[in-house]
Structure formats: structure tokens, C-alpha cells
Automatic annotation (TrEMBL), chain A:
GO terms for molecular function: phosphatidate cytidylyltransferase activity. One of its GO terms (biological process) is peptidoglycan-based cell wall biogenesis. The lineage of its organism: Bacteria, Pseudomonadati, Pseudomonadota, Gammaproteobacteria, Oceanospirillales. It is a multi-pass membrane protein. It catalyses: a 1,2-diacyl-sn-glycero-3-phosphate + CTP + H(+) = a CDP-1,2-diacyl-sn-glycerol + diphosphate. GO terms for cellular component: plasma membrane. This is Phosphatidate cytidylyltransferase. It comes from Marinobacterium mangrovicola. Belongs to the CDS family.
From TrEMBL, chain B:
This is 1-acyl-sn-glycerol-3-phosphate acyltransferase. SUPFAM superfamilies: Glycerol-3-phosphate (1)-acyltransferase. Keywords: Acyltransferase, Transferase. Pfam families: Acyltransferase. One of its GO terms (molecular function) is 1-acylglycerol-3-phosphate O-acyltransferase activity. One of its GO terms (biological process) is phosphatidic acid biosynthetic process. Pathway: Lipid metabolism.
Length: 316, 221
């Protein structure tokens, strides 16, 4: 144990910090070399990465309940952001208030290790409860739209995001990495997938994959990302998770395709609302949904892949 | 000194957590916000929280210079609220009854504050009105600045507070709030030009908001 962290996770965390240091130095060098060009946004993005990774690693160093509360808070901010950008009726305030209350409850089930309730709470109880609140309010004009939007938002930002905490708390046979290992594996693969798809797409891409949703996404970027992440996951999976080599490669494939999809789904939401960013919380990145778009899709799929293979107890 | 500490503590421990955690701000051009007076912040008015959001944005060391101009009939309603409004928020009470005597007194108070280099927060619509709908701009600010040449007026547009805490409710629901701060405008050619320029500024700033407006189905019938 290093600082209370499982050794493999500590190694990964140090490497992430290492990459960040190299990125920051390169950014500074670029700024010195090309004084004529404007690198403010790149630098702002890098600084924001320091903040996000620093804060998250700090939380991981604390006892488990802190991580649970931290991820619950991410859900809160994401749900708030979503419900602020989508047009809603003023009367929906009351239903929305109840939707927020679903957050502590959903994370409470994880806290007391009740997997069965964790997995059905949002799709069953919240799903049926919100329309009930709405009929008590009684305004039927726009009812379907509001009920749909609130539930979709809660699914994305509470149900899907809470799977991050589930991956962290899930017992694992790989005690050298612990739950942190699986969580970091997911986070690093998801974020690096974004980077790979962007870089490969910029350098090689020409044929657009979904021009109506995002004109910047190309087939080359997508396939390049899938290839790199599958290989990388195969290499890192056995070290950080309970998965074998081939299982890890498949996990990489799932994360890569799901991450790509999540990114596009939030893009489609923004395009529909005619906004560029979902918020202005993170300088250089946009809102919290802009940052978590891929994770919203990768977290549940990776969790259920692990759960399918090894079950909640950590061994098949 | 005690009043200054009260205001500082209130903003630091209550207003800021409420505004930055319970709500959440999408701030544009925070750096244009003046930290030295004389200056006037002319914001749109949706909710009692408008003042709180603006107070949360100022650096703590400049906070004592910020004076909200607020309705006496509401903020001095009873002695507890009056104590809070005058000692903690440090408001300049505004009587909304239209009497020449009152309006001259108010102008004198505001002028004195501006002379001391303070920053006034004024809501040119007068009252909160319907949530998220900009009302008619009144000309009080013009009367304040027309004889000064050193007092910029900063138009500020906020959106989202009208549904976080609309008029007549106590349920405070979290929503993100846009705060778009415009460049200071220093001189106006006349009262009509003042209204037009402010209106144009509000329209331009509103375009930078990213939160959505409320859909109000009653309007369509």
C-alpha cells in the first residue's frame, strides 16, 4: 500500500501526473516558441486538467465514503446543468426538486452495498414516481415532454454516472489494484479514447462518419481510436482490473465505441438546443456534461461487462 | 467595521456557497465587473436572489463598496429584515411610491454614495415582474448619471433565477444561472437614447446566455 492506495493504482496515478507534467511543459514550450500564436485556450485546458485530476486524486486518497459523495456531487452538477439547458415549464420545478432527491438515495444504496436496489431504483421507482408528482401538480399541457426530459436527464446523470461509484465499490479479486484500479482504467481509457479519436481524425481523417451531428468526426478517427484503445486496454487491463488479456481487449473495444457514442449524443443535444457548450464551469472545456459525455456511456457498459463476467462478489 | 465584517461573513459563508454550489453560474466577462466606484450595475430583475448573485461575484476586498438599491416596502418590511438589509446587505432603501420628495431624497443618497466611490446595484425595471421577462426600463439611472461624466453604467443580464426562486414561492430549486456582464457605458445623449442603448445592450447580452427560457404554455392561448 502506498498512501493507502493499492500499488498498481498508485503507479497509474503517478503516470497520469507524469503525463500531465509533460503536457504542461510542452504547452509552455509551444507558447515560448510561437509568440505570435494564441495558446491561451490550450493552456487553460491544461490548467483545468490539473484541477480536475488533482481534485479527483485527492478524493481517492480519502476514505471510500468521500469518493461516493464526490461522485454523487458530480451527478448533482450534471443533472442541474442538463435541466438548465433544456426548455422546461415553470410548473416542473416541483418534479425537478424530487428528481434531485433521487441522487442521495441512489448513492445511499451503493453505500449500504444493496446492488439489487441500486440497479432498479432509477429505472423503476423514480420512473414511476416523477409522473405521479406531475399529475398532482396537474398541468397537462407539455406533460409528455416534461416527464420524458426529466427521466432522460436522471437516467443520464444519476443512473449512468452512479456506475462510476459502483465500479469503485465492486469487490475485486485483483487486490493489487483494488476498486480504484478498475475505476482508473475506465477513466483513463475513456479520456484517452477522446484524445486518440481527435488526433487520428485530425491527421488522417477525411470521410465523415456522422456529418449531421458532428462535422469533425471521421471514420479514420473512430477506427484509429478503437484500435489504439483496444490494444492499450489489453495491455493495462490485467494490471488494473480482474480481467484477463482477451477480456481486457474486449473491454477496450466496448469503452471505445461507447465513448464515441456518448460524445456524439451530447453533441446532438447541444445541436438541438443550438448551444456550443452545456455550461461554463470548467475553463477551456465548457460544462460538466461536455467533460463527462463519453463517461456517461462507458461507465454503465463497462460495469455491466465486469458484472456479467465476475458478478458483484468479484469472482465468477 | 463590524458591519463590514457582517457583510463579508454573510457573503463568504452563506451567499457564495448558495450561489456557486446550490445554483451554479455561467459567467461571461467577469473581469469587466468594476471594483472601484463610482459605477452603476444595471441588472435585469427576476428574483430576490439577483442581488445575492451579484454580491457573490465581487472580490471580498471590494465588497464594502457595493450598495444594492432595493425597495423599502419589501426590504424594510419588519425590523428584523430592516436590520439585515441595512446592516448586513447595506442597501440604499428605495421608496417605490412616486412622490417628488422621496425621489429627490433617494437621488441625493445615491449621489452621495457615488461621490464616495461606491458601486450601486440598480434594477432599472423597478420590480421583479414576470419570471424571465424583461420589463420596461425606467429612467432613474439616467437621472443619476446625466450630470456626471465619470460614472459608467454596466448592463448585466441574468437568466435562470426566475425559475430557481420565482415570485411567491419558498421552494428554492437548483438551476444553473447565466450572468453576462456588459462593457460599461459612460455617457448618454438623452433619456430616450439611454433607454435605447440599454435595451440594445440587454438584447446583445441575452444572446450569450446558454440556459433555456421557461416554456410557458398559458401564453399560447
Amino acid at each position: 500500500m502506498i498512501l493507502g492506495l493499492p500499488p498498481h493504482s498508485a503507479v497509474l496515478m503517478s503516470s497520469v501526473i507524469g503525463v500531465l507534467v509533460i503536457a504542461s511543459i510542452s504547452c509552455r514550450l509551444l507558447m515560448l516558441k510561437h509568440c505570435d500564436r494564441d495558446y491561451t485556450e490550450l493552456w487553460q485546458r491544461t490548467l483545468s486538467w490539473w484541477w480536475m485530476i488533482g481534485l479527483f486524486f485527492l478524493v481517492l486518497l480519502l476514505p471510500k465514503p468521500f469518493t461516493l459523495v464526490f461522485i454523487a456531487f458530480l451527478s448533482f452538477m450534471a443533472l442541474k446543468e442538463f435541466l438548465s439547458i433544456v426548455p422546461m415549464r415553470l410548473v416542473d420545478r416541483r418534479a425537478i426538486f424530487w428528481a434531485y432527491l433521487a441522487i442521495p438515495v441512489q448513492y445511499f444504496w451503493l453505500g449500504i452495498d444493496w446492488y439489487g436496489m441500486f440497479i432498479i431504483f432509477v429505472p423503476v421507482y423514480v420512473f414511476l414516481f416523477i409522473p405521479m408528482v406531475m399529475i398532482i401538480i396537474g398541468d397537462t399541457r407539455g406533460f409528455i415532454h416534461s416527464a420524458g426530459v426529466i427521466h432522460w436527464g436522471v437516467m443520464l446523470t444519476v443512473f449512468c454516472v452512479s456506475h462510476l461509484a459502483a465500479i469503485y465499490l465492486m469487490p475485486t479479486a485483483n487486490t493489487d489494484a483494488g476498486g480504484i484500479g478498475a475505476l482508473l482504467f475506465l477513466l483513463v481509457m475513456t479520456q484517452f479514447n477522446d484524445v486518440c479519436q481527435y488526433v487520428v481524425g485530425k491527421t488522417l481523417g477525411s470521410r465523415k462518419i456522422v456529418p449531421k451531428v458532428s462535422p469533425n468526426k471521421t471514420w479514420a478517427g473512430f477506427l484509429g481510436g478503437v484500435g489504439i484503445i483496444t490494444l492499450l486496454a489489453a495491455a493495462a487491463g490485467p494490471y488494473l482490473t480482474v480481467l484477463t488479456l482477451w477480456e481486457s481487449a474486449t473491454a477496450g473495444l466496448i469503452i471505445s465505441v461507447a465513448g464515441f457514442t456518448g460524445d456524439l449524443v451530447i453533441s446532438a443535444v447541444k445541436r438541438d438546443l443550438q448551444i456550443k457548450d452545456t455550461g461554463r464551469l470548467i475553463p477551456g472545456h465548457g460544462g460538466i456534461l461536455d467533460r463527462m459525455d463519453s463517461l456517461i456511456f462507458t461507465a454503465p457498459l463497462f460495469f455491466h461487462y465486469l458484472h456479467y463476467l465476475y458478478g458483484w462478489a468479484g469472482n465468477a | 467595521m463590524l458591519d463590514r465584517a457582517l457583510k463579508l461573513g454573510f457573503v463568504l459563508f452563506i451567499v457564495r456557497p448558495l450561489v456557486f454550489i446550490w445554483l451554479g453560474l455561467n459567467t461571461v466577462n467577469r473581469h469587466t465587473l468594476p471594483t472601484r466606484g463610482p459605477a452603476i450595475i444595471a441588472a435585469n430583475h427576476n428574483s430576490h436572489l439577483d442581488v445575492m448573485v451579484l454580491l457573490a461575484l465581487f472580490p471580498l476586498r471590494d465588497l464594502h463598496r457595493v450598495r444594492p438599491v432595493a425597495a423599502a416596502d419589501y426590504f424594510l418590511r419588519n425590523r428584523y429584515l430592516a436590520w439585515f438589509s441595512t446592516r448586513v446587505l447595506n442597501i440604499i432603501p428605495l421608496s417605490r411610491k412616486v412622490e417628488r420628495e422621496n425621489s429627490t431624497k433617494l437621488l441625493t443618497q445615491c449621489q452621495a454614495a457615488l461621490d464616495r466611490g461606491e458601486i450601486l446595484i440598480i434594477f432599472p425595471e423597478g420590480s421583479r415582474g414576470r419570471p424571465e421577462v424583461m420589463g420596461r426600463i425606467k429612467k432613474g439611472i439616467y437621472r443619476l448619471v446625466c450630470e456626471r461624466n465619470n460614472c459608467p453604467v454596466y448592463p448585466v443580464v441574468m437568466r435562470g433565477l426566475g425559475r430557481a426562486l420565482p415570485r411567491g414561492t419558498a421552494r428554492f430549486v437548483p438551476f444553473n444561472v447565466d450572468v453576462v456582464i456588459g462593457e460599461g457605458i459612460s455617457s448618454f445623449e438623452g433619456p430616450q437614447a439611454y433607454v435605447q442603448r440599454m435595451q440594445a445592450a440587454y438584447t446583445a447580452l441575452t444572446n450569450l446566455c446558454i440556459t433555456s427560457e421557461c416554456v410557458d404554455y398559458e401564453d399560447r392561448t
